[in-house]
Fold each of these.
Amino acid sequence: MRVCVSFVFDFPFKNPIEPNNFKTNSLMFSTRTLPLLPFILFLSTGGCQPEPYSQGEVLYKYHCENCHMEDGSGLGKLIPPLDSSRLTLSDPVKLVCLIRNGLPVNKLTGQQMPANLKLNEVEMTNLVNFLGSKYASNPQTVIVPEVKKMLAGCQTD
Amino acid sequence: MKNILRFTEISLISFLVLTGCGNEPHRLPYLGNLEMKGSDTLYHTVPDITLTDQDSQTYRISTLDNKIILADFFFTSCPSICPKVKKQMLRLYERYKDDDRVVMISHTIDQRHDSVAVLNRYAHNLGVDTDKWKFVTGEKDSIFYLADQYFVSVIEDPLAPAGFDHSGRIILVDKARRVRGFCEGTDPESVTAFFDTIDKLLKDEYQ
């Protein structure tokens, strides 16, 4: 974290446009640096930490990305995009069971969503939180014991 | 010392100028083995096998008049790489859909499941014009042989997801059915570079 902070404060000095024009005292408050403030704040908070739900992202790559694509855009009418399924993505109970059981063959498209029986409750939690944070309009964070209950409640045919 | 530098500079510049002007413009390679017949060179060509398209019509690439082909091999129930390759095929489709010199052909490698009706539904749901982009099936042996001739590996493997192991290559074939290039359909960057290859072939073939 210290590396990041020093980087943040070093940054204006390395401005390639006017390298000699900065004064250390007025640095953070000058009108010139004001527009940079959001960027500096971003660097000092999110920019230095790993992405939230990074395991969820890895799981998404491995289990979902081949069909739903890296950006969640899906494929025509064959594979639905994730951002249009906001309702399901906002409701972790539905989402957990959807991922666990998949979907039967859709008569209109002939496509089906495969079940994911190998994901354990920790992986499922990370995946659901990642999906929620990225695509849900109203993301709800879940914890492992909740997901364990949800999984137990999923009806398998 | 100054003279030596001067001399190197001049010779380097003239070398660059001479070689730059002397060469023919770079052409795309012909992929596959060459055969010599007398004084003629025979290039590898893709066989003209009778196929059936998504509308139950007979389809032969020899009937394509004056067109270049973009081909891939897939199956509709494929859970692994096919959707990604199809996404990239869609990019190619969008780019060349108004260019009558280009046709696209997707061959199914799962003839048991992918009937004509299934292929038709797939094309419809993908939302593409089937005059431009054909979805074809045929005898299993023919299609597997065809894939081999297109340099795409297709293997039936009970251990693979949904029973097939296959490569996601997209193949570029010229008007004379010679293979002139390919890209990896699973890699968007490879497909972006492929745009240039296709444009180059179009330029060479339709001067």
Note: The helical segments of chain A are 2-10, 37-47, 54-63, 65-68, 86-90, 92-101, 121-135, 144-153.
Amino acid sequence: MLTMTCPYCGAVCEETELAPGGEAHLTRHGPGSSDDDFSGYLFDRKNPKGVHFERWRHAFGCGKWFHAARCTVTLEVFGTYSAQVSEPPAEIVAAIRARRPDWQPEEV
Amino acid sequence: MAERLSKGGLLIDRDQPTTFTFNGDALQGYEGDTVASALLANDRMLVGRSFKYHRPRGIMASGAEEPNALLGIGEGARFEPNQRATTTELHDGMVTQSQNHWPSLETDVGALNAWVADKLPVLSAGFYYKTFLFPRVAWKHIYEPFIRKAAGLGKAPVEKDPDSYEHFHWHCDVLIAGGGIAGIAAARKAADEGKRVLLVEQTAHWGGRALVDGDQIDGQSGPEWVAAQIAALEAMPNVTLRTRAMAAGLYDHGYALVYERVSDHRPGLTGAPRHRLWRVRTGQTIVATGAIERPLTFANNDMPGVMLASAARDYATLYGVLPGRKVIVYANNDDAYRTALTLHQDGAKIVAILDIRAQAAGDLPQQAREAGILVRTSTGIAKAIGGKRVDEVQIGTIQGEKMTGREEYLSCDLVCVSGGWSPVVHLWSHCGGKLTWDDTSAMFRPDDSRPPTGSDGQAMTKCVGAANGVLHTTEILPDSMVRAPTEDVLQPHWFTPSRGKYAHGTKHFVDFQNDVTAADVRLAAREGYESVEHTKRYTTLGMATDQGKTSNINGLALLAGALEKQIPEVGTTTFRPPYTPISMGAITGSAKGPLFKAVRQTPMHGWHDANGADWEPVGDWYRPFCYRRAGEDRHAAVNREVVNARRNVGLLDASTLGKIVVKGPDAGKFLDLLYTNMMSTLKQGRCRYGLMCTENGFLFDDGVVVRTGPEEFLCHTTSGGSDRVHAWMEEWLQTEWWDLKVATVNVTDQWAQVAVAGPNARKVLEDAVCDVALDKGAVKFMDYVEGTLAGCPVRIFRISFSGELSYEIATPAGYGMALWDALRVAGEPHGIMPYGTEALHIMRAEKGFIMIGDETDGTVTPQDLGLFFAISKKKTDYIGKRAQERSDLVRTGRKQLVGLMAEDPQMVLPDGAHAVKRRREHVAMTTIGHVTSTYYSPTLGHSIAMGLVENGLSRRSEWIDFSTGLGEFMRAQIVDPVFYDQAGEKQNV
């Protein structure tokens, strides 16, 4: 039952207060997009064995959505950050690199 | 012959005798006894019959690892099956009984199983997969009832549990599981550093093995040292101590469950829950859970009177009970000699110590010889002999894989066995800690380099003491002066060879509770079940309520031998919480009965309850399905409500429907993206029925949207959907379109809402006194007005789900009952009756209106349902639009909404019945659709139904077959889904 800190209200949340929201920073493809782009948006997910950027909602708390950088293998949480950004901010990348020197953010 | 000693027993209070019963016999014990120690004091070694073979079984251990002594404790509503006698504290008046035998423990017909199994190997490993297969027809009436009767050990209680249970939240810096010397020392250290400490111990006493094994610490005896340390800890404000509290599991990021048996030992204690489940969030966990002794595997090692060596001395020292008078000790290590010395001091005759090893030269064997005890090396037990109690053992010289020498017999009534010790690594393993095999000590121990890690990626757990494979007091307390014997190393011994028919291991028991033998493990290996996880499931080794505490290591060592692999290659199976069984009550806590699920209530809930409402769960609410009058069944009530609403007027509590305010300069733009309709063009004072789809293009919610202001909309949702739709809105606004200037609020609970529907609806509202003109021209169909009605501030929406003239009236929730009452009273002269959800559903189905959850199932688009009027052609984008352009969503052959008329108009098509391409008897049929809504219509006097059928829109008037199960079919014709008032005139009267 993992814990994460909500970057909006500051609470250290237990998993039962949170609702998961899947992979973060997806690009929405709408009308006019190719079948490949659209199906990628609907169904393709990185599903990494390691560092993952994901959306969470503080459902039984302040109600805000936020982003988290988390290791899918060990459940280590590198940090949480605002939902209103399209890519992880520099501090989060630095926090990950401090723990995983070999990790590289993927090309978009 | 087991008996109580005349003195001794650290844990019992000889001034407080207790009486209890076992299988109806009245027996004596003392406060401080466990049921097991008291039974032994009364020479009751035989306590049960084994699971498969119904072999006599006796008490084998002294703690949670006990596999045999499972008893039913208590009576009536407090009866509990499968309780371990070794961990159940005795109290005065306790009623206990043994399990799994008929007609009695001593004479059990089930023993025939063993006789049969001797002749035919029908109960060996894998029998579950190989038996009861044919003939198939015998399954339902012969095999299944037989298996149900034979399955399980204890009887399930049948009365409602009268006790209460609670959950309890706790935060600490350090959680220490285990109150032996390692746990106590760790607690002192952490407490001295100022940390908040929680120290928990599963038994009722502190000290673990230090109370029995005789080592001296800093000049004190074990019990003295323990008492002093506990006293010091109790005085520290940052330390919380709990006995009778077992750390059941360790989970992510330092979440742990501790199971506390608060009042099992003091029944009737008022104001206390029976069990308490601690939900702990800790910074670090220290696992000080000790180690469990392994039995040795030899023929008939399951016989009553064969006991773990440490348990035998536990009974003597802690409870003042001598488990036997003529004692054999059989071991591969020095530690077991402690038992011989203890029992010898307490007056037993030690017939011999049989040591596997060629040499026994350590301190403890020396002490034994000095005490005049016979020690025989390179000796093993070929078989135990006896019936309901061991009488003698046949021994021999072990040479490699063979038992040699002459057949020698030693008379005994107690055989104390020890095959070494296995660290209790469960909590370490629960959350990902890995193990390493220590070949010298023959044990799996925690691998420090691969610990469980927490939120920060750092180690969050460590093991100390015997749980870490450190068995000797000198090493556990390096800072103390310890006087303890040094011990020679053990010799791993996984299978004692035998003679004759016993050589194959069919009577060498490994898992006592599930009756799994060495032969079973070897059979699994031969049949190809080579992974330890497969062997476990194929043989059921380690799957009983003791979860292999005395069998896992012995079993996997045998498997390794059979596969000619090393033990670490075979590995262990997965450790899963809880460590020992916890009660369902503890898991439930207070979430039972009315507290099981929070129920939301509308302001009129009490009125419905008092007026015959038959309740139906809808989302978080209960809504009236119908209101039954005297003499009516549901069917009659529903029919009356429908007929009355269409003839006069009906009243419906619609408060549960979701209401969300969407407000801001970009509100219209936002709703244009959320709905398939164009919402931004909706004029103030008007309503529009809207559809919401997922990005996959499928319809998931619907509702009327109202333009309440220049930058404000009120969105209605389904009753079950308000939270989901609100969360959906916020998801898009917060994670995708965060530049839009929109705010949303879920106001579902703020407004009570009542529907007044029927030809007399307008008259009712006018009679209730409204300050807004309600004539046909003033409030048109799909208009919205605000005003006052019967003194309540109201919003009136002229919308209709029934197809009749209908108004939905919203008032602030506090006015809900007043509005309801006023409408009822005003409606009386007009024939008003309340109607429930079923009448609502029938009326909308008569009009061909869809319902989310009936006509939709997550794979249905608005186009499939023919709802083209609600899909904007002008909008360039809305959620789901791109998906609805996918080839699969525009192809021909998709299931489309149709009406269905059953061939027999008085028969109702079953809900969900599949339409089939062709009737078939035995081969699977091809489905071409299904019934989505189906009712008897009292308005029309016949059944009606809607369904989704392939190419339904182009199949009007076709007859199709529906499979109604069990080879039966119904025919129905595809018709217009609007069965009533096709012109739509009724809503405009």
Note: Chain A is about 20% helix and 30% strand.
Amino acid sequence: MRSDTLEVTASARLYGDTHILWLAMPASYQAAKPGQFVMAYIGEHTDPLTGRALSIHRTRAGAQGPEFALLFDVVGRGTDWLARREQGDAVRIVGPLGRGFEPQPRVQRMLLVGGGIGCAPLIWLADRLTTEGREVTLLLGGRTAAQIFPPSLLPPDVEVIVTTEDGSLGRRGLVTAPFTELLPWCDELFTCGPPAMFEALHGLLRQSGLRKPAQALFEQTMVCGMGICYSCAIFPRRGGVRLVCHDGPMFDLRDIY
Amino acid sequence: MPAPSLDLGLTIAAGSKRELRLRNPVMVASGTFSNGLEFARRFDVDTLGAIVSKGTTLRPRRGNRTPRTVETPSGLINSIGFQNVGVSALIAEVAPVWARWRVPVLVNIMGETVAEYGRLAARLDDVDGVAALEVNVSCPNVEAGGMEYGQDPALAAQVVREVRRHSDLPMVVKVTPAVTDIRPIVTAITDTGADAITVMNTVPALAIDARARRPVLPTVFGGLSGPAIKPIALRAVYLAASATHLPILAAGGVSSGLDAVEFLLAGASAVQVGTATFRDPAAPWTVLRELTEWCEREGVRDLRELVGAARRRD
């Protein structure tokens, strides 16, 4: 949980209202894992006050040293400010934070399901898993084509299935349809997206009777990102309370629903 | 580190058997440092003046529904609802870690009844690692909670007497700004056996979601903290200082060394860094370093030169 002021190495609108920001990666991020996140602080003043929690989207070698990317929809003052950063600007970042995905070591067939901007951390996971020689199928769902991460930017070994609710790209409908078809195939499942999608996936998983590990990245209003403010509570169905930033953001779907 | 010529030390309950010595006047505010264990892995907690624990209740609490926080201009409204492990787990699992630290730890306690305050005090008395109590008579978050105690001098005094009856620990009492005049409360607390006073808790506040046409927080109201409340806290400290001879620990938007200086000038003897830590985990140490640098630059030898120096002497 250290604070670093990081240089922006590249910044671009990547697709639709979705922006990518590449930052110089400090050495302390070497052990970071897909599913972990950072807090990005907006401006030099205290308004807006709190950081924005954003998953690490990807890493790359970079010309001047390693870099990592944040991928985000421009939805408010914070993300608008971030999107207006240019090469050479600085952004204060605290991270890497939280518990990321934990793929089992010896399983082969990985199913990744991203809803909307929830694809951000799954891209890095897909990069990693294909590098390790595993089979990866990535389902990308969105309301419309403008919300779909460009499949051309993915490793060629990743099988990508796109669904849009308006049918403007890929199959018309929700990710739940291809999910149902691919569930028997996969060994392990990783997902990030809106809570309604998690609930649907969990329902289908239960119906199938298949006991497949299903790791999901949860979201909740975060303030500190480090387990000290207790803002980002999540209440597992079986009782108790967990903090998304500290105990998660990765939880097995079955531990929450 | 401070130059040898600069004395940053502070004593609470000076001359009594409860005397508590702080190496410097920079503390953390309850609820903004958890119980410190996460920080101890990354920072040298022993260089701070004191740590204040998360608000602790007799039984564990799950806290409120979400959202629990909402950002406002230079501020944060929270309604966490005292999620905490409860005093038994605190004593069994956390206090033994504190016992290995040199920095004193104050345990912030919150009861739902006067008797509960007494029971909490009794449980924590003589526990290794617990240096003092900070009694929360002012939290605006919990419906059945401390609000009423902190808003009435007689009720506040009742709590202070009950805690004192059950514990010989140094006792700090944290007051609320949600009163017409803070002075009668501060006087009552002073007269009944407190050793220091934390001024102040969060400011009761409301955020509304216009599109949904309802409050953002499920509890409707929450407590506002952060730079937005600093001027309110400065006034509260200034007023409180006229009503007590006890050390005042200032809380409310402290984010820099200069903020700390302003609070000392208004009459505080120490500051608690709170919401600033949510923006930067190193904030308490930054405040300490900047305060030290300011004193060196200004030729201050003893912080007591500053305490209350901005107060009118008429």
Note: Chain B has one domain: 10-63+82-204+225-311.
